[in-house]
Amino acid sequence: MTNQPALTKYPVTPDSRYFVVRGRLWRLSNPALAEGERTHLIKELMNARQHVGEAKRAGDGAAERHARDLVDAAKRRLGERGLVWWSDGAPDYNRHLARNTPYAHWFAALGLEDE
User: Fold this and answer.
1) Got the DSSP string for the chain?
2) In angstroms, what CA-CA distances link 5 with 1, 9, 82?
């Protein structure tokens, strides 16, 4: 089960904490967020990402830094960065290669190592 249906093309770990892209784990957002809050935060994230692109195209380093800070803030509120949203004491493997984590056997069984 994943809380982000758009990610169905990416494998999601059995505990639904991460999805995998090119062998790397990326933390999913907190499934305890209310749908309205999640929708609002995703809109904030998309707007901030748009501002990053605009600032880059304009060559405005200060605006880009500010926009990247807004991206980070939205991702933290979604639970994709910062403190983990689970409470069982398991460490965070965000951005780690799946093969170097406790998910290694699960990932190897998917047969996606070369993708």
Assistant:
1) --S-GGGTTS-B-TTSSEEEETTEEEEPPPTTS-HHHHHHHHHHHHHHHHHHHHHHHHT-HHHHHHHHHHHHHHHHHHTSSSS-S--S-PPP-TTSBGGGSTTHHHHHHHT-TT-
2) 9, 9, 23
Phi then psi for residue 82, to 5 deg, are: 80, -150
Is the pLDDT at 57 greater than 90, yes or no? Answer: yes
Q: What is the pTM for the complete model shown?
A: 0.84
Is the model's pLDDT at 47 over the cut of 50? yes
Q: For 2-46, how does the pLDDT look when each residue is reduced to its tens digit (9 = 90+)?
A: 444 455 689 999 999 999 999 999 999 999 999 999 999 999 999
Instruction: Judge whether 56 and 104 are in contact, CB under 8 Å.
Output: no
